[in-house]
Amino acid sequence: MINRTRPYVAAALVVFSVAAVAHARQDSKSAAGAKQLTQALDAAKLDAIAAADPADPGTFVAALYIQGSQLLVVSAKYSAPALLTAKLKTKEYRDIYMDLSSASVAGSKVFLIDMDCNGLAQKPDGNDGPDSWEANAKQFTFDGDWGKAKLSEDAYKKAFADADERYVKMLGLLTAQAKQ
């Protein structure tokens, strides 16, 4: 006798697996922004980008793009904003990234690593490594293990939501600059 349900069970498992991965990404507000930025950088043939934050004078955001692998993004105040403004005009984006990474105003730096350039995720998808976030002298590795981070599940989710929201704003500034 032929078992006719096996193909349906296998198809249901595939659909469930795809839905689970999609659900994990739905929690990320930054996924669409990361995609827009990487597409703009690819179109402009750029591996770095930077922009001033008009909502916070003296603050800049910059990113290094390792195509298909990582987005390294930093935002910080800079003690001599006129120097970075001049570098923006000459499109010295990599230099701005380096300046913000190494010589930002103490306590103002936000740094994140977006593995696979697909927005922040609460836990890694498949082969991705975990995304990480550093701000206000606190570091978070979004690997889904809030216990290891000595956080409650709610505190972990709040940290992720706050990081993701901030990342969306950073991505918006960088994408606008890349499209100019």
Work out the number of β strands.
Answer: 6
Give, in order, the helices and strands.
HHEEEHHEEEH
Report the major sheet: 6 strands, antiparallel
- The averaged pLDDT comes out at 86
Indicate the structural class.
alpha+beta
Could you say which overall geometry the principal axes of the C-alpha atoms support?
Answer: globular
How many separate helices?
Answer: 5
Topology:
Elements: H1 6-26, H2 30-44, E1 48-52, E2 59-66, E3 70-77, H3 81-89, H4 93-102, E4 110-115, E5 131-135, E6 138-142, H5 153-178
Antiparallel strand pairs: 1-2, 2-3, 3-4, 4-5, 5-6
Could you walk me through the main structural features you see in this protein, from its secondary elements to its overall organization?
The protein is α+β, with helices and mostly antiparallel strands. It has one domain. It is 45% helix and 21% strand. The protein has helices spanning 6-26, 30-44, 81-89, 93-102, 153-178, and strands at residues 48-52, 59-66, 70-77, 110-115, 131-135, 138-142. It has a six-stranded antiparallel sheet, sandwiched between helices. Helix 2 runs parallel beside helix 5. It is globular and about 60 Å long. It starts with 5 loop residues before the first helix and ends with a helix. Residues 7-26 have low confidence and may be disordered.
